[in-house]
Task: structure prediction
Amino acid sequence: MATRKMLTGNYAAAYGAKLARVEVFPAFPITPQTPVMEKIVEFIENGELDAEFIPMESEHSVMAAAVAAEAMGARTFTATSSQGLLYMHENLFVASGIRLPVVMAIVNRVVGPPNTVLNDLSDSLDQRDTSWIQIYVENAQEVLDMIPQAYRIGEDERVLLPVAICFEGIIISHYMEPVEILDQDKVDHFLPPYRPKQVVLDPDRPMSLGQIVMDDTYITEMKYQQQEAMDRSKAVIREVDEAFGDAFGRWYGGLFAAEWIDGAEVVLLTLGSLASTVRAVVKQLRDEAGLPIGFVKLRAFRPFPAQELRDCLSHVKAAVVLEKGVSIGAGGPVFLDLSHCLNRRDRMPLLIDYIVGLGGRDVTFEEVRNIALTVFEERHADSITNPVRWHQVRGL
Amino acid sequence: MSEWKQVGPDAQKRYTYQELPIGDASIGMPSERRKTGLWRYLRPRFVRRFSPCSEACPAGNDVEGFLAFAQQGRYGEALDTLLGESPLPGVCGRVCFHPCESACNRGAFDEAVSIQGLERFVADGEPTSLPVPGPSRKEKVAIIGSGPAGLTCAYHLRRLGYEVTVFEKQAVLGGMLRLGIPTYRLPRSVLDREIDRILSLGVKVETGCRVGHDIPWEHLLTWDAVFLAAGAHAALSLGIPGDSAQEVISGTAWLEAVNLGRPVSVGSRVGIIGGGNTAVDCARAALRLGSNPVIVYRRTRNEMPAMEAEIEEALQEGIEIQWLTSPIAVRRRNGKLVGLECIRNRLCKPEPGGRARPEPIDGTEFVMEIDTVISAVGETVEEAYLPPGLKGEQEGAVWVDSWGRTSLPGLWAGGDVATDPRMVVHAIGAGKRAALSIHASFTGEDLVELGRRLRTGAKGAFSIDRYLNDDLPGVELVNEVVGPDHLNLHYAEPLERAALPRLDADQRVRDFSEVNLGCDEQRARAEAQRCFRCGECRGCGNCYVFCPDGSVLFDPSAHEFRIDYEYCKGCGVCGNECPTGAIVMTAEGEV
Amino acid sequence: MINNPRDALFKEDYFHPGHPLCPGCPGGMALRWIMKVLGRDSIANVGATCLCLPTHVYPHSLEIPSLYIAMAPSPAGISGMSAAIRILKRKGVIPAEKRITVFAISGDGSTADIGMAALSGAAERNDDGLYFCFDNEAYMNTGIQRSSTTPQFSWTFSTTKGKVQRKKDLPKIMAAHDIPYVATLSVAYPEDFVRKVEKARDMGPGFKYFQIHGPCPTGWRFPEHKTVEVARLAVETGFWSLYEVVHGSFNITYRPRKRLPVVDYVKLQGRFQGLTAQDIRTLQNWVDEKEEGPGS
Result:
């Protein structure tokens, strides 16, 4: 039977992993991820979870061990943050390149310097080219719900890619919320055991994984296979969201959740915990001021739902991205990706990027409201000269 | 999605991304299709090279071949191998000066293999099969003399199918083997067994028949071929005053009398002049007959032509040897020999290619009290009975070319009568050489070509068994002798050479019992293991084990190694690690 | 007849010809013997080493499963694989009685330098597998640059005047991890080699460390047919010693009959070409200290 508990996001991730019956768990401590590791170790040691914990000596080795365990055919889970994620960067490509559906909780934290344990999304946004599926979630319940979903997505034979579930440190990882803990039998039904057929190290059917491709052969084709798998994963993410909703009564919208889009002239798009604030602002402005403003909560950053967002935003005058990350010298990563898909000659909304919440700085209701109103004023402009806006810089 | 897929390395085939297995995987495709043999510029080959022991044997014995069998305890086949080249292994196993051992590569590592001891052990057993006469040929060959040269020639000619008659002056066969070698070195049972084996091939014998006397040369020279192997029986004189005295006896004649069991007299103190085997044999025989012999030799022990073991045994038996001493006159008193006047020598620097020359030291004259002198300073050929017109050489020897042909057509010669070194094994080699040469004269085969095909090295020895049986080794035979540099001695374990037991000195001087006792099976087997098997694969498997390309194939049922040239890159590790030098590297394209 | 009963070395080959290693490569020998001993039910975890070439050049594969992750973390691969095997056996996915041997093989650079932390970590955790460091004493696959196991005075492209520092004594460092088995291997002593690998294979769970001394004809500048000879001289001079450490107890497995002078080893190799008599004395002293000093 499903139960409700007060849980931090980290514990929710640990419960999610337990419900997914993960089999191998290599990990290395880093704030704010550490409680995920501690809770899973507790589950293993008290017999609630039959799995192998490997206390690795570095994140680089964590991802290597995860690759090796997953390649053996074991369902593998790990969690990390920030510098730890960057330290395993090389091996993230290995997991996806060999097509191993490892699942990882990324508990977002600033990449230093300046160093801090507070959050923004710069660590995981930075991993966008590693060919991992990245799904950003809003609260502890979504963290828990997404871990079994992540396995079902990644392990789907149409996909076979690793999946990261990203949630912000402290604000999600350490604050307690009431969370429904899923019924194990129902999860078992939703997520059958992982017994890979295609990519697996088996002495009865030997294959060599992680090849050196020396001559003019197939690197392009192999990369394209990943691209195609990533493209296919969009449908799988939606299917899994539907299936999860059918089983557990919670639907998250798949690639993104759009609200109040019909007739909206301005749409505010964000991801992660900020979605709660932005949604509330939009609701208030619609309810109280009657402004035609819509809201999009982006969930999948990879695969990036370009076509889908274009269709969704085709009628709006202006779209605003609020994001806790930046590619210095260009703009916010979500904004940059969104720009390339709004490439229609006839109609194209103004696209404006707000860089907010860097280094864990609070993004308040008022600030978001001001942003919304500012952009609403600008919505008819032919062009704007400052699409990327560092909103919270003191002295700017 | 597709099941797991295999894609090939075919560069021409451009697989689509849908055809590839997913995940940068190679599936079930070992690397065999990459033909790395194309990289090779040196080609390793399993060959057989000549071993130095076989090369050194003037009789052309397949030393390594018989030792290979002996290593496995297959002594009968070992004897078959020996009998393929020489009918007298029991003789050589006892009396040969074994140049094979001097050449043995093991000598550079610890001590040479006791080849002679093993030959004797093997020869004293039974062969698995006896040599058989070859298909009958019409030509008849006369052989003069039944010493080792004559007997060997007869043996091989019968194997080649000729009708052979041996003419022997004496009533018994064996020549110097019987007349010259005392029985304590060569028991007559051994000699008789080997002569019987030769005769069993169908050799005709005329004993007591002296050529030039009982049978005229004119008659003999009408035979299809004649092999003259009558030996050298005329003693050289001492060339000192008094040497014609009755008590100055010829060593060979005296030994002949002893060996034939005729009554001989020898004084109580006999002086034997000379340093060769005859001198030592005389001394040791005299000792056994109750005399007190002393050997007088003009140089030192190092220069003595007698075999080292013989000298050592003589000294063990208490025989006195006066080195650096030359006789200058025989002293007589009352018509009786009473002493030998001698002078001491010193050695001068040897002339190039020669031995050190002794030079008398004035004032060192002294008299040795003796009552008998045996002169053993060498023998020469009795020229008187030779056919006219025969070209000669020094000391009356008959000139022969490298194939035993004399200056007269139809006449071959070999052994002591010709210009060969006067050793048993050389005589055996000469007999074999003459047999093949005579045969080729009838078949018209080119001896130069035959020699090249049959040679067992660069020293003139060859294999007649290879001719008779067309018996080429399964691998290529390379005309090169294996030296220590060809071997990888890391794989050799130091092993002590088997000591061959002898009768105790005080026991052996009582009669003419054989001094050397030979070795038992256990010792023989251990000694055989010491053979490196130079130039021949001995199946150690190093080539297979060390090949970094897995390109040396091993067939366990046949115990054979083979190189897979499709993949062999020609690194040469196999050749370097071959303990026996049985793998050679040759530039690709030169083979 | 095979006179020498080296049964393990005559077992079936799972290592195939046709690989692109240089002629005379000691790695071909070593990997071939390892695979003979460990057999079909083993899984290879290859780090950065020339031995990627026989194992991981597309589209060829080994006859056993193999995985290349990255340069450094092949020890972590042992950790992940052995953990996966344990859980999959508990769950009955892999039959409990089936013995699957996990081994890693990687170069000296990836073992002693970039992968040192991963190696130390896996050893400290005593994760179950055999680790082979293929020590050819430099970064060879990248074209001969110094590593921490390059010996003193050796030329490489990054030590063109000879390396200043001495060779890192990695087996001793590994022995200090208190793992069940540490052994040094040489391609010139195949019986010693396979005996040790067999011993480790049959030892029960734990981390077993091997360091293979692998003379590289290409990088050390000697003729390719001399690979085994150079390897042998390394041992016969004491430059490389053959020993094992079984649960902490140190045991020499081969002692040269008479230790040869180091110059016999050095003079065969172009990488030591410029050595002075003083340099050779320094090397000799190093060997003497190593072989005769405390703790030897």
Remarks:
- Residues 74-90 of chain C form the longest helix (17 residues).
- Chain C touches chain B at residues 1-4, 6, 9-10, 13, 15-21, 23-29, 32-33, 54, 56-63, 187, 190, 217, 223-229, 232 (CB under 8 Å).
- Residues 13-292 of chain C form a domain with the Rossmann fold fold (CATH 3.40.50.970).
- DSSP finds eleven helices and eight strands in chain C.
